[in-house]
Design goal:
This protein has helices at residues 2-23, 30-45, 53-71, 75-93, 100-124, 133-136, 139-159, 161-185, 191-208, 215-221, 239-248, 257-288, 300-325, 337-368, 372-396, 401-419, 424-434, 443-447, 454-459, 461-468, 470-475, 499-531, 539-556; strands at 126-127, 130-131. It contains 23 helices and two strands. With 557 residues, the protein is mostly helical. Strands 1-2 form a two-stranded antiparallel sheet. The protein is flat, with a radius of gyration of 32 Å. 73% of the residues lie in helices and 1% in strands.
């Protein structure tokens, strides 16, 4: 056992050194995949970890997320990598867990307790006759006071500017002192890089060394996916129950409690259905039915945001109300067919609300093109649809709230990985350029996308130039002929104002500004590509580099 502890400690230290090598000066790309391979290999070699199907599934998912970072290198793929890492580590060490959210919490606990677990392992480790215990033992007496001192120092700095000034000077002197010591002892190792290595050791320790506390697994094992009829105790009554009891009096404490709760539920769902029906009828008249000729269409942006907000509120209300009424013995009440039917109707109405928002988003995209927010609305609508389906299953099959969390969590994670396959920047730019004759092409938005779109933008310069000055050209239609001022007398009869010439000059300057902006972005990309090492390699940047390289050769010829 002692040998295993020593090996894990050495692996954590080695992982910290590797972490520093991979991430010290390079941006996130191939280095994330290499670190994933490293930690998966170490966990595979750990004999204390059961190599179950769950271990291999989430290990493969994390490896896939690392591969997608190398291919797409988007912010979404990097977020997927972090979440996949947390889930893989959480399920690897606590394989009795069933929910995505509990696994994320388990990884958080791993990270929080990692420094303490690392010191504990280091105290018990022996390398031959040498032990770190005499050196590290005093640290445990000062680590908590240091953390407390740091937290309160930050608070006091925010509260008092004078204290902030003094503390900044003191902190600077302390940092310079330790930096001088490191420069003297280790010529090639700065204090910041040393702290980066320590951080890498802590992260690797959180991944490899399990926190020996199975409370989270025991707690989750108490959560069931199937509802079971039980006798309510007074101590189990909750806040909502007490609120209902104010109006229902002592009816809820009698044998007719289920009957009363059923009646209250029927009234509640009837009222909510009528309210949502009114909203959906407005959408049918204004959105779904053909409008008279000459009618001005809705304000897409305002309508889309308003519909999305209504959808969020409606879905949350649906979840809360259904969870309240269908999370107890009312599921087993023999006369609950009416309330079930009303709940199903409300779920269907919410599904129609999802379709209405989807239609608004479609109209908005059809007129103005794609953006991340409009794609985000589509993803949100998909999540809402999945949520409504699982809520229906919860009511129909008497499932628990834990079932909803578990099922939706795994679906959301799969959807996160699936969306990471798409290079969204290129997809948005390509769609908008290809549909430029139908939509209002926003060149400014295209220029805000990442460098992955540079080949596409450069190839379509001639096309985009026509749209680069469109807004300024429209504004120039309202140009007023200049008038003489009090300070400078202008003889307008001698210098006639040529409106068309003025418009053409503005357009020329706008096109010139547009081309200079593209050229500056290309120069910045080439500088960035030259600064990065092979650890920063990713497919999309490499493809952009090859395109620009071939373009330069063509221009030189």
């Amino acid at each position: 056992m002692k040998k295993q502890i020593d090996l894990q400690l050495l692996a954590a230290i080695g992982g910290g050194v590797l972490f520093n090598f991979l991430f010290w000066v390079d941006w996130l790309a191939l280095n994330l995949l290499l670190y994933s391979i490293f930690i998966i290999a170490l966990l595979l070699l750990d004999k204390d970890i059961v190599k179950s199907r769950k271990f291999f599934w989430f290990g493969a998912a994390h490896l896939l997320a690392g591969t997608l970072v190398v291919i797409n290198n988007s912010a979404l793929s990097i977020v997927s990598w972090y979440i996949s890492l947390a889930l893989f580590v959480g399920f690897a060490h606590y394989q009795l867990l069933r929910s995505i959210f509990t696994a994320l919490l388990a990884f958080f606990l791993q990270m929080v307790t990692a420094p303490f677990n690392l010191i504990k392992r280091a105290l018990n480790a022996r390398f031959g006759n040498f032990s770190l215990k005499p050196i590290l033992k005093p640290i445990k007496y000062i680590i908590i006071p240091i953390i407390a001192l740091t937290l309160f120092s930050v608070l006091y700095r925010i509260a008092n500017p004078v204290f902030d000034g003094y503390l900044s000077q003191i902190s600077s002197q302390i940092a310079n002192f330790f930096d001088a010591i490191f420069s003297f002892l280790f010529a090639d190792l700065s204090l910041i890089r040393f702290l980066h290595i320590i951080f890498g050791i802590i992260v690797t320790a959180a991944i490899l060394i399990k926190h020996q506390n199975n409370s989270l697994e025991k707690i989750e094992l108490g959560f069931k996916e199937q509802l079971i009829r039980s006798r309510k105790k007074k101590s189990s009554f909750h806040v909502v129950y007490d609120i209902v009891a104010i109006f229902a009096g002592n009816l809820l404490t009698r044998k007719t409690a289920l009957k009363t709760e059923n009646v209250i539920g029927i009234i509640s769902f009837t009222a909510l259905n009528l309210l949502l029906l009114f909203l959906n009828c407005i959408d049918i008249v204004k959105l779904w039915l053909p409008q008279p000729a000459g009618t001005i269409l809705v304000n897409y942006s305002e309508e889309l945001h308003g519909g999305t907000n209504a959808l969020i509120i409606s879905i949350i209300m649906a979840m809360l109300v259904i969870l309240y009424f269908f999370n107890g013995n009312l599921n087993f009440y023999s006369k609950n067919k009416t309330i079930r039917l009303l709940a199903y109707i409300w779920i269907i109405q919410n599904a129609f609300l999802v379709l209405s928002v989807l239609l608004r988003d479609y109209y908005y995209i059809d007129v103005n093109g794609l953006t991340y927010k409009r794609i985000g609305v589509l993803v949100f609508l998909l999540l809402c649809t999945i949520g409504l389906i699982t809520v229906y299953i919860k009511v129909a099959q008497r499932k628990t709230f834990f079932y909803l969390c578990k099922t939706n969590g795994i679906i959301w994670y799969i959807l996160l990985l699936a969306t990471s396959f798409v290079n969204w920047d290129v997809f948005i730019a390509s769609y908008n350029i290809n549909h430029r004759n139908r939509i209002a092409l926003d060149v400014e938005h295209l220029m805000e996308l990442s460098d992955k779109t540079l080949p596409l933008i450069d190839e379509n310069r001639a096309i985009l130039e026509k749209y680069a000055y469109s807004s300024s050209a429209e504004l120039s239609e309202n140009i007023i002929e200049p008038k003489p001022t009090d300070s400078i007398k202008i003889d307008t009869t001698q210098i006639p104002f040529d409106k068309n010439k003025f418009i053409l000059e503005r357009q020329r300057r706008q096109i010139e500004k547009f081309n200079k902006l593209i050229d500056r972005r290309i120069d910045r990309f080439n500088e960035k590509w030259g600064e990065g090492s092979w650890l920063s390699w990713n497919y999309n940047d490499w493809r952009t580099h090859l395109y620009l390289k071939a373009r330069n050769k063509t221009e030189q010829q």
